[in-house]
Every structure is written in C-alpha cells, then in structure tokens.
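Dear colleague,

Thank you for sharing your sequence with our group. We've completed the structure prediction you requested, and as agreed, I am returning the results in plain text so they can be pasted directly into your records. Please verify that the sequence below matches your submission; if there's any discrepancy, let me know and we will rerun it promptly.
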Amino acid sequence: MNPLQRFAQASNRYLPDPVRLLFIAEAPPDIRVHRFFYFTGLTKGDTLFLEMMKVLYPAEIGFTRERFQPGFSVQQVRHNKENLLRRFQVDGYFLIDACDRPMPDGASTPGKMQRMKSALPALQQRLKHLLSQPEVPIILIGGVTYAICAAPLRHSGWNVVNHSMINHPARGNQLLFREKLSATLQPGR
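Please find the predicted structure tokens below.
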C-alpha cells in the first residue's frame, strides 16, 4: 500500500457521520517519519494530535494549568490514542490536510504556498464530499494554510471560523496553538 493510501485508510477509520467541525492542516508528514494524526501506536512526535487533545479533552487526559496532573503523561495519551480518536469521531470532529501529499523536504514558504494554491481545487472538491452543509465550521491550522485557504474558502461559501492564523504546534508553538485554538472554539471568552 502506498503512503497516500495508508493516510486515507487511517483517516477513514475515524470519519464521523456527519462531520460537525472540520480542521484543515497543511499537509501530511513525510511518510519516512512514520507519523500521522490518525496513526496509532506512535511512541514519539505526534505534536498536532497531543496538543489538539489538550485543548479538546483536557479533563480526560489530565491536562490542567498548562501541565499534566500527577498520574497523567504524554505516554498515556499516546497509549490511549485510539480511544481518543474514537471520541474525536463521535464528537463529529475530523482533520484533513489542505495538500494530500507531504511537502517536499526543505520546501520554502513560497514553495509551500504555491503547492497549496495548486491544491485548492482538489480541497474544494473534498469539502463538497465531506461536509453536508457549507455552514459546518472549518478551522484552518498553520500560517500557510490560513494565508492561502481562508479567503478562497470563504469566497466559495465555506464557514471558516478562525479570523486569524492558528500556529501549528510543531517547533515550539504549542502554547500559541492551544491559546488560539481555545479562543476560536470559545468565541467571546
């Protein structure tokens, strides 16, 4: 099975019916790193999943006041990933990538932006298949994703609910990700 088929198979196991909130990130990781939001059994990495769970299910994973409480840990979250993904699914949440293929190694921001612009028509088609109504909330994750996708998706009638970029949690942006995602999920907070 090729990498794109593995990504699709893993994602489809957790596809809710209906999708009530769609997250769109940039692109899947390079398959050589053997990580993906929907892959279970991971023992390292997995930052997007871990940080998303801290925002969505802090009580279940024992995360309060910016740290794990005694008896809870990152390892436990990873160990419980399949159950957390089922909860994510039951709650109607789903995450896709704007580009279905990983970004090339060492891709510059302009290169990523061009690749994402090229992927916009395919993304629009996926949204038509995934979402029952254009009013379903969409949250864009990452600077390139927001810069390239927000205006065209809104122009096409999709309900992009974040009005500014939400940092991807990789490379030290975990706190910004949690703060911005929390604020987007709880407007007026």
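Summary note from our side: The radius of gyration is 16 Å.

Kind regards,
the structure core
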